[in-house]
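In the design runs reported in the main text, the only information available to the sequence generator was the tokenized backbone. The following block is the verbatim input for one such run; it is reproduced so that readers can re-run the procedure and compare outputs position by position.
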């Protein structure tokens, strides 16, 4: 835990120093975990919950955490749990980009029910809120802002024991964040997006049922698909990646290129929805056990300030991240080879790889420049210092394979404004 004088664990100077070097192969080689929940995948996934849920709950009391937009899906889950003989309650109070007080309200509901199974039914905000609810419900003695993935003094994981209070199942209703499979939750604190991370926050089970993503409209399908592409691309180019995470990232990228256009064009294409649910989960496993790239630091900061959807924002910055880190690492050559991109030299391969990403993003209706996202140069300039402050403060900056300075971020945002090549 950090000292009480700090707000968030990511602001602890020791942890910031640790995270800037912890991805090095030598350090990762000493001892690395690979975290994943049990997966239940397929068109009858949620129906199978009837047999599975009682095995994760001693007292047979389940709180279903959701939001008002997908409450109907939560009710389907509730009827399955009731068939299994469980006492259930739905809390549909999650609000987008959940602030801390929203999380505390959810934990209070869990406390009143004495739930020992939490079932999150929703997109990234719902699953992230549910993880934070889980933590506060089980450990109200802790300030969730100060829960750290590792203890900065001992460099070991501090056990939280949250499963002694409840277990968790996540059922995603969008294919994007991969939150159902990661140890991470993004929480809003004031005007900032902050990251909660602890290995115990990996859910016990994730259910990937394509029927639960069938109603997502085309634009949101495209934006959440960009989140998948950003997770997988950032992860395979990261120095945190390893022999387990890279193939998962490649397969996620392959599935996005093949199936996202179909899912955007026809929301009822159940095969495309199914493949995108798997892609999202694989990308989640990939970056959750490695790290995303600086497209996430930029996207978190930019999305918060300019109110842009997370997936849209991180997707927009992905081609610029690829170019930036290519000066420091030739991993993009392996990615290009996987995607069948060739060229006379590294620069040509990189240019073609970036063109492939940009034309794909345009084909599914996503902006590839800040200008295309509807932000004027005047708006950018007025917010530039705060934008760079937030980006520098994001933990994804610390995990970049190529270090980033304030000046480099300024140049990257300017390249992304009109779509210029990153050649520094
Ligand atoms: Fe993301």
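Verbatim output:
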């Amino acid at each position: 835990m950090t000292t009480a004088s700090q707000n968030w664990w990511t602001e602890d100077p020791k942890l910031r120093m640790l995270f800037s070097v912890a991805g090095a192969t030598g350090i990762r080689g000493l001892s690395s975990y690979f975290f994943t929940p049990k997966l239940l995948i397929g068109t009858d996934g949620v129906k199978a919950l009837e047999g599975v849920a009682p095995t994760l709950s001693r007292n047979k009391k389940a709180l279903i955490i959701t939001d008002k937009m997908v409450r109907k899906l939560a009710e389907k889950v509730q009827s399955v749990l009731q068939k299994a003989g469980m006492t259930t309650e739905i809390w549909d109070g999650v609000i987008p980009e959940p602030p801390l007080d929203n999380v505390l309200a959810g934990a209070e509901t869990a406390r009143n029910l004495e739930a020992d199974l939490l079932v999150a039914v929703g997109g990234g905000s719902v699953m992230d809120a549910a993880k934070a609810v889980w933590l506060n419900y089980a450990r109200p003695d802790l300030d969730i802002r100060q829960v750290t993935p590792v203890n900065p003094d001992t460099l070991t994981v501090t056990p939280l024991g949250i499963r002694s209070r409840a277990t968790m199942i996540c059922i995603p209703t969008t294919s994007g964040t991969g939150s159902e499979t990661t140890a991470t939750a993004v929480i809003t604190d004031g005007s900032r997006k902050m990251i909660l991370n602890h290995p115990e926050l990996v859910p016990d089970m994730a259910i990937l049922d394509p029927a639960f993503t069938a109603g997502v409209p085309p634009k949101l399908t495209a934006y959440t698909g960009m989140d998948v592409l950003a997770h997988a691309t950032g992860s395979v180019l990261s120095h945190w990646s390893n022999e387990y995470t890279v193939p998962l990232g490649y397969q996620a990228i392959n599935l996005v290129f093949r199936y996202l256009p179909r899912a955007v064009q026809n929301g009822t294409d159940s095969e495309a929805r199914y493949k995108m649910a798997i892609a999202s989960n694989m990308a989640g496993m990939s970056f959750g056990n490695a790290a995303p790239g600086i497209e996430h630091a930029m996207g978190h900061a930019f999305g918060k300030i300019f109110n842009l959807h997370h997936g849209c924002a991180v997707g927009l910055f992905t081609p610029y991240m690829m170019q930036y880190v290519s000066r420091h690492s030739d991993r993009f050559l392996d990615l290009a080879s996987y995607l069948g991109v060739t060229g006379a030299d590294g620069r040509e391969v990189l240019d073609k790889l970036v063109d492939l990403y940009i034309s794909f993003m345009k084909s599914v209706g996503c902006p590839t420049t800040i200008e295309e996202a509807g932000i004027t140069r005047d708006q950018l300039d007025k917010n530039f210092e705060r934008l760079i402050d937030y980006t520098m403060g994001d933990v994804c900056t610390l995990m970049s394979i190529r270090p980033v300075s304030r000046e480099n971020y300024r140049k990257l945002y300017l390249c992304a404004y009109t779509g210029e090549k990153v050649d520094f």
